[in-house]
Amino acid sequence: MSQDDSIKVTSDGSEIYHPSDEVVSRATIKDYDSLYKRSIEDREGFWAEEAEKLSWYEKWDKVLDDSEKPFYKWFTGGKINIIQNAIDRHQDGAIADKTAIIWEGEPGDKRRFTYRQVNEEVSKFANILKDKGVKKGDIVTIYMPQVPELAFAMLACAKIGAAHSVVYGGFSAEALSQRINDAKCRVLITADGGWRRGKIIDLKAISNDAMSRSPSVEVCITIKRTEHEVSMQEGRDYWYHELHTEASAECETEVTDAEDMLFILYTSGTTGRPKALLHTHGGYSLYTSVTHKYVFDIKDNDIWWCAADPGWITGHSYIVYSPLINGTTVIMYEGAPNFPNPGRWWQMIAEYKVTILYTSPTAIRGLMRFGDKWPEKHDISSLRLLGSVGEPINPEAWKWYHRVIGNETCPIMDTWWQTETGGFMITPLPITPLKPGSATKPFFGIEIAVVDDNGNEVAVGEEGKLVLKAPWPGMARTIYGDDERFREVYWKDYEKQGWYKTGDSARIDSDGYVWIIGRIDDVIKVSGYRLGTAEIESALVSHDAVSEAAAIGLPHELKGNAIHTFVILREGLEGSDKLAEELGQHVRSEIGPIARPESIEFVDSLPKTRSGKIMRRVLKARALGEDEGDLSTLEE
Ligand code: WTA
Question: Please, where are the H alpha helices in 88-139?
Answer without folding.
Answer: 115-131
